[in-house]
Design goal:
By secondary structure, the chain is mainly alpha-helical. Helices cover 40% and strands 8% of the residues. It folds into 3 domains: 83 residues, Arc Repressor Mutant, subunit A (Orthogonal Bundle); 37 residues, no CATH class; 61 residues, no CATH class. The longest helix is centred in the middle third of the chain and has 26 residues.
């Protein structure tokens, strides 16, 4: 195998060629511009060619520099990817799940212990549990289950002053809203429910709005 120039010198050239500046290369590599210049001069001596034309206030790649830079850039990107895969190996046995707060608290958390018992080791997976229509570009979506959405109220509102016995009686009460998760336009709301029950003269958007059902009950 033929001997390669020092890795530090190759990296100094790749960064300087990417920025076309010794100063900016020095900032990225946390060294001085003089150190970058020294590494590149050493590399040019090792290769027996000039890589840069040093102008008054700028740099210009020579023909040799232009030929060398793309391959070096690809090589360093490949090295970075290889190292990242090794570092990410620590997370290969971790399952990361995102879910709406109420769903997580009421359904997911009680089942975590059973899941960990049945699945002590798993490859790296990211799972998201969401309320949605399931249309995600480039992702696999599987329907878990549907849900029924309907109005509820405190039992105290069924009697006393302004008893709530029919949909029209809502005109004398405050509407509490659970807004659409992820901005889903098809999420049931007071406006569609009141229209379906032929209730008019009532602002369907009036009242406090919440993004979690935990705060509505």
């Amino acid at each position: 195998m033929r001997r390669l120039p020092p890795l530090n010198a190759l990296k100094a050239f790749e960064v300087a060629g990417r920025h076309m500046s010794f100063s900016r290369a020095a900032e990225e590599l946390h060294v001085t511009p003089a150190a970058i210049s020294h590494q590149i001069k050493a590399l040019e001596t090792d290769l027996g060619v000039k890589l840069f034309r040093r102008l008054n206030r700028s740099l210009q790649l020579t023909e040799a520099g232009q030929a060398c830079l793309p391959g070096l850039r690809e090589a360093f990107e490949t090295m970075v990817s290889a190292v990242d895969r090794i570092r990410d190996k620590e997370d290969w046995n971790m399952l990361t799940i995102s879910a709406p707060p109420a769903f997580g608290a009421r359904w997911l958390v009680p089942r975590i212990v059973d899941f960990r018992t049945a699945n002590p080791i798993r490859d790296s997976v990211d799972v998201a549990i969401e309320f949605s229509q399931g249309h995600y570009s480039g992702r696999l979506a599987q329907r878990l289950f549907g849900q029924d959405v309907f109005p509820v109220c405190s039992p105290e509102l069924l009697s006393g002053k302004n008893p709530l016995t029919t949909p029209a009686d809502l005109r004398g009460h405050t509407l509490i809203h659970f807004d659409a998760p992820m901005g889903d336009p098809e999420w049931p709301n007071w406006e569609t429910w009141l229209r379906a029950n032929k209730v008019d003269r009532l602002d369907p958007n009036k009242g406090p709005h919440f993004t979690s059902p935990n705060f509505t009950t």
